Amino acid sequence: MPELVDPDPRYQRSFLESVEEWLAAGDAERWAGLSTIPAIGESEGEAFTLVELADPSRFSTYTARLKSLADPATPLPAGIVTATQLWWVDGQEYLGRLSIRHSLTPWLLEFGGHIGYSVRPSARRRGHATAMLAAALPVANRLGIDPVLVTCDDTNVASRRVIEAAGGVFEDQRGEKLRYWIATS
Ligand SMILES: CC(C)(COP(=O)(O)OP(=O)(O)OC[C@H]1O[C@@H](n2cnc3c(N)ncnc32)[C@H](O)[C@@H]1OP(=O)(O)O)[C@@H](O)C(=O)NCCC(=O)NCCS
After folding, report:
1. How far is the CA of 129 from the centre of ligand 1 (A)?
2. Residue 61 is part of a domain; what is its CATH number?
3. For 115-148, how does the pLDDT look when each residue is reduced to its tens digit (9 = 90+)?
């Protein structure tokens, strides 16, 4: 039974296989999950290379760093908010990831939303994103977020269905982004 868990070194092998899959599929590295903090403006961000993550001790640092991003005491560059990073796993298999931002910046309110997610290419079209977003709603509620804003590109049919299956109420479109609110209680 798949579940949302904290990033953990025990998933190293499967996580790295998923990154190889993403790269082979030609998808952008940002969806592969190597960045803990994206580069924004003059900030260089923080990213780990695939070679680095093959080292168990670096991978352990990586998962610890991801978990630290949920702690409001962790220093972050301007424009990056505290966020809980969760992985969707089935046994030892890493299937996808999800991020719950604890608050909205003006940019997140317009475009990014509270929750972002991705499913590894080989695990798609099996209902994982739908189940993962549903499982994230109580977590967001425990963080005091109700409702959550979830957005997707107007061309992203799969993500749109995921949001609508979770009860997303469409508010409007800004640029290419469709914006939906979902009750978490
Ligand atoms: C979008 C994404 C998360 C969907 O993950 P998934 O696990 O395949 O989604 P599900 O299996 O839960 O499918 C959800 C719905 O989308 C449909 N769907 C999935 N992939 C599809 C595709 N490529 N084209 C059309 N419909 C698709 C499914 O049939 C399902 O529809 P249904 O609810 O009517 O049955 C995944 O494709 C992904 O990681 N994409 C790249 C990152 C991304 O776009 N993230 C979302 C940012 S907003």
Report:
1. 7
2. 3.40.630.30
3. 999 999 999 999 999 999 999 999 999 999 999 9
